[in-house]
Design brief:
heterodimer, A: Rossmann fold, four-stranded antiparallel beta sheet, 35% helix, B: 13-stranded mixed beta sheet, globular
């Protein structure tokens, strides 16, 4: 078992009303799964992803990650946990504009305090694997959207996470570029990386092994 | 990680060039100021720190209270020397130094003459036990033990005996003041470190009588306090200070002045530690040697405050700009956080950014500071250089400064930035940016307060300076000049008469008169005049002014009662109105015919002249008598000739040439120096003029920093409001309306700052004006114009940006939104 959510609630108070963003979510994810989260806008997909990624808090319920009780952890431990095991891929890529491709890939390793030589090897490895060696000194603005997202995925992968959380990874890409990214995910999943993606597209969702539908913060079967 | 931080910080600085430049300039100005002040403080604090046992060296100084007046004097009564040597077991050394005024030194072998050597003292061998000079020749133990001995510093020895070996000079003779032969018994080199013991020639104390001074060892002149006669002591142990002080207190009480007039006259002796010599500390007395410039703790403090405020202004800019920029950097931080960066690491990164900026600013300052220092060279002691900045102390100081400044300015923005929640930032939510707005406004107000305080202070100090320089002193100051007659020792009196006659013959000159000091001067010659009032004798501290019968004509001082003196040498007084009042007379005429006791002689008051200012306008008009020259011929009181150059300034150069010609024929060996009365008065206010200059600089810099900061804020503000501006424009707002909309906030801030600045400056300047007996008004218009000035400058700066923002094509920004 990689992670387990039990009766997760998240809400915001708006005036006297309480608006639920997540309502009674129960979900367990095994290692090696490829899960697609679907649902209309505002149904809580991204919120769920952020909760799983420990970037966002929830108000009620229990969350176990590798048997650690996330809901009881302090901020610092939580961040150590996701630093260690989780990689993020964003719809808008979110590369650091001031850094080159190489430096963007290196960044997570720096935060994990890898040694210089090790970093070099890992980044070179990743550049090689994604066929972007020639672009390593370019800045994000000099790349196409698809290439940027490729770097985004590479960056998420570089520290060898157990879990990749992707929030509409193909949302800003054209269909060909999107397909390439999805193929990449598929391949990674086959190599053993657990992936949870949020998507609007049935086609992309089909890449996954399981689909979770959300509506108004609730899971619907 | 560190390298990476630096790299990223560097790139982000390059990316925001405008903000970086603003920040660097702001910090640079502050740092420059701090460096200069640091150099000055270091310079002043590094005096006389090298002496052995410096903790045990003191000077006995005098504090005199007379009624409500308190005077301090670095000198002390000379009998103290022998009394302390005989009866004070806690003292290891008692060292007297008596300033000697030498007119002429002659080396008969080379027939060379040297006029007016400075820094000559009488002292004895204890001096060289107290202060360890490097000895080049002679026996340190006995060099000043007999009459007729002199020790020279190397530079003086070389001057008097060019091309001679040090050992050869030993035993040679020099003739002082025409007739006193002195034998060189030692040569020392001056201290290589900075010292206020600036003496160059040391004549044995036992020779003092040859120069017409009393024998110090047998002196009983307890009532004579002169800054020329100093007494230094070295304690056996440091802890002895209290017991020596109580001994001194007892001596002061025992030898109190018992004269009739001295009932409310108190004199006490105070031990001043060596460390206080430079600044004078509480006693406020000058250092031991002759120092052209006095270090003043107050001035240093003022300079320090100026530097501090400039530095704070720079920091405020930094905080403002960076926390305002936070929004644009929020995304960056969000990503970093999802990549595993901790809050600490984010803070670190921003701190490094600040560090780089501050370092760049500091490096720039190292280049600029020496140039800026040049601007103030005339108000600083010679020898102050920025050299200290390149020594380890200076470098350490700079490094400390850099870290402190970057800590002050970098920490808050870093803290704000690192606090962002990555999820909301990445979603593009939040970002209302209200965070820190209040702080930003507060800091902007702070900047404006400082700037306005400087502006108003500059205006008021300038106004006062104008006032005192242009106020009627009560006598004629325009076109009046005077020359000092060379000392009588080597110039017989007849020469004086010849000069006077020659000046009279010059066509352009009129109202030529003899005198001593000018009507207003820095000269304080006062005496106690006795006056019988209903059988009771009272004493009045009175200023003495010396002048011949023409003197009042030269200076156009009106006689308002009685008559002039009968001639120049008769013992008669002309009083001023202040004296009339001080002695309790209603009308000037009432004092005519009364006698005033001068020493033991009764002298009649024959006339009254109108009041005029005898000193700078810091002081009130004091009681005074004008009298002629009734001293012996050799020590004539007429030591200067005063004359009117006339209204026609084209004529002056001809007149001056004629004066020069006459002078050269009468005093071929002396240099002519013509003093002008208006310059003399200007000279009273050097300190004020320095203050004005300093304030002008501080004001300009403060305005520059604040306006740069303002510009940054406006750039940021308009960027955020582009959409609003566009929408309003589409709806039909005019350029002026838009500009008003954008400026409103800043006008308000300037207004708030004005409200804060006014009471601050009013209080401070009122205090400053108390230094003057005659002062200008703190008019309301000064404050208003200070505020308005700032407002106009601020509006101009703001408008640079807002106008271009308002003029931009609205479609562009609306399309991209």
């Amino acid at each position: 078992m990689l992670l387990e959510l039990k009766n997760i609630f998240k809400w915001v108070n708006s005036g006297s009303q309480r608006i639920f963003l997540l309502k009674d979510i129960n979900l367990s994810v095994e290692e090696g799964e490829f899960i697609s989260v679907m649902g209309p806008s505002g149904s809580g997909k991204s919120t769920l992803l952020n909760v799983i990624g420990m970037l966002d808090q929830f108000d009620e319920g229990e969350y176990y990650f590798f048997d650690e009780s996330v809901h009881k952890l302090k901020e610092r431990h939580r961040s150590n946990l996701y630093k260690e095991y989780i990689g993020f891929v964003f719809q808008a890529y979110h590369l650091l504009d001031d850094l080159t491709v190489y430096e963007n890939l290196e960044m997570p390793l720096l935060y994990k305090k890898y040694k210089g030589a090790e970093r070099k090897a890992m980044v070179a490895d990743m550049l090689d694997r994604f066929n972007i060696v020639g672009k390593k000194d370019l800045f994000p603005a000099q790349l196409s959207g698809g290439q940027q997202q490729l770097v985004g995925v590479a960056r998420a992968l570089i520290s060898k996470p157990k879990l990749i959380l992707a929030d509409e990874p193909t949302g800003n890409l054209n269909s060909k570029q999107g397909e390439e990214i999805m193929d990449l995910f598929k391949q990674l999943n086959e190599e053993g990386v657990t992936i949870i993606q949020v998507t609007h597209s049935e086609k992309n969702a089909a890449y996954g092994s399981r689909i979770i539908n959300l509506l108004d913060g609730r899971m619907v079967k | 990680m560190f390298k990476n931080h630096l790299k990223i910080a560097w790139r982000s600085l390059l990316k925001n060039k405008v903000f970086s430049v603003i920040n660097i300039i702001g910090l640079c100005i502050g740092l420059c100021a701090a460096m200069i002040i640091g150099a000055i403080v270091y310079y002043d604090l590094s005096f006389d720190t090298f002496h052995n046992d410096k903790n045990r060296i003191y000077r006995v100084s005098s504090v005199i209270t007379f009624g409500e007046d308190r005077f301090t004097n670095r000198g002390a009564a000379l009998p103290l020397m022998q009394v302390l040597r005989d009866n004070a077991p806690e003292v290891e050394l008692v060292v007297p130094t008596l300033n000697a005024y030498i007119q002429m030194v002659e080396n008969h072998r080379t027939n060379a003459k040297f006029k007016n050597p400075t820094d000559v003292i009488f002292t004895d061998d204890t001096y060289f036990q107290l202060l360890k000079y490097p000895w080049l020749a002679g026996d340190q133990k006995t060099a000043l033990s007999r009459p007729g001995q002199i020790v020279l510093t190397k530079e003086m020895a070389k001057k008097y005996f060019p091309n001679a070996q040090m050992q050869q000079i030993l035993g040679q003779n020099l003739v002082y003041n025409d007739s006193i032969p002195l034998t060189v018994s030692g040569i020392v080199s001056r201290f290589t470190e900075k010292s206020d013991f600036t003496f160059k020639e040391f004549i044995s104390l036992s020779s003092a009588q040859l120069f017409g001074k009393e024998n110090v060892a047998y002196s009983s002149n307890w009532n004579d306090t002169s800054s020329d006669n100093q007494i230094f002591v070295k304690l056996k142990e440091r802890g002895n200070k209290a017991s020596l002080q109580s001994r001194l207190n007892a001596l002061a009480a025992e030898h109190k002045n018992k004269a009739d007039w001295a009932t409310n006259f108190e004199r006490s002796f105070k031990l001043q530690p060596l460390a206080d010599f430079r600044f004078g500390a509480q006693l406020d007395v000058p250092p031991p040697g002759s120092v052209p410039y006095r270090s003043d703790v107050k001035v240093l403090m003022a300079l320090g405050f100026v530097a501090l405020f400039l530095l704070l202004l720079g920091c405020a800019n930094f905080i403002n700009l960076n926390s305002a920029q936070a929004l644009t950097r929020a995304k960056d931080i969000g990503i970093r956080k999802t990549l595993g960066s901790s809050k600490k690491q984010v803070i670190q990164q921003f701190y490094y950014e600040t560090l780089i900026l501050t370092t760049i600013a500091a490096l720039l300052s190292l280049l600029i500071a020496p140039l800026l220092l040049n601007q103030f060279q005339d108000q600083l002691p010679v020898g102050i250089t920025m050299g200290v900045l390149y020594k380890w102390q200076g470098l350490l100081g700079i490094v400390a400064l850099i870290f402190m400044v970057s800590l002050i300015s970098g920490l808050y923005p870093a803290w704000v930035l690192s606090g962002f929640n990555p999820v909301s930032v990445l979603k593009g939510q939040m970002v209302k940016g209200t965070k820190g707005t209040r702080l930003r406004k507060g800091l902007t107000v702070f900047q404006f307060v400082v700037a306005q305080v400087f502006i108003i202070a500059t205006l008021v100090v300038g106004k006062q300076l104008y006032f005192i320089m242009h106020k009627d002193m009560g006598f004629k100051t325009e076109n009046i000049a005077y020359v000092h007659i060379p000392r009588p020792n080597n110039t017989p009196q007849v020469k004086k008469e010849r000069l006077f006659g020659a000046l009279k013959d010059i066509e352009g000159l009129s109202n030529i008169s003899y005198g001593r000091a000018t009507p207003a001067s820095t000269n304080y010659w006062t005496t106690m005049l006795g006056h019988f009032d209903e059988q009771k004798e009272m004493f009045q501290d009175t200023q003495m002014l010396i002048g011949d019968l023409n003197y009042t004509k030269t200076y156009d001082i009106p006689l308002i009662a009685g008559r002039e003196r009968l001639n120049d040498s008769i013992k008669e007084f002309v009083a001023n109105e202040a004296l009339v009042k001080a002695l309790g007379y209603e009308n000037p005429t009432d004092i005519i015919g009364t006698n005033l006791k001068y020493d033991t002689v009764n002298i009649q008051v024959v006339g009254v002249i109108a009041n005029f200012n005898q000193h700078s306008l810091h002081s009130t008009i004091k009681p005074m008598v004008l009298t002629g020259d009734w001293s012996s011929n050799r020590y004539s009181n007429f030591t200067s000739v005063h004359f009117d150059l006339g209204d026609d300034s084209h004529q002056w150069s001809t007149s001056i040439k004629a004066i020069e010609k006459a002078w050269a024929s009468i005093y071929p060996e002396e240099e002519l120096e013509i003093h002008y009365m208006d310059n003399t008065i200007k000279g009273f206010y050097q300190k004020e003029r320095r203050t004005v200059k300093l304030l002008q600089w501080a004001t300009a810099l403060a305005i520059i920093i604040s306006c740069l900061g303002l510009l940054g804020l406006v750039i940021h503000g308009t960027e955020r409001k582009t959409k609003e501006i566009s929408i309003r424009k589409v709806l039909g707002a005019s350029l002026a309306q838009l500009n008003m909309l954008l400026c409103k906030e800043f006008v308000l801030l300037v207004g708030i700052a004005f409200v804060i600045a006014v009471p601050l400056t009013w209080y401070g300047l009122n205090d400053w004006l108390q230094n003057f007996a005659f002062k200008t008004h703190l008019s309301w218009w000064v404050f208003i114009s200070g505020g308005l000035g700032m407002l106009i400058i601020a509006l101009m700066v703001v408008s640079i940006r807002t106008l271009s923002a308002a003029r931009a094509n609205p479609i562009k920004s609306l399309r991209t939104e």
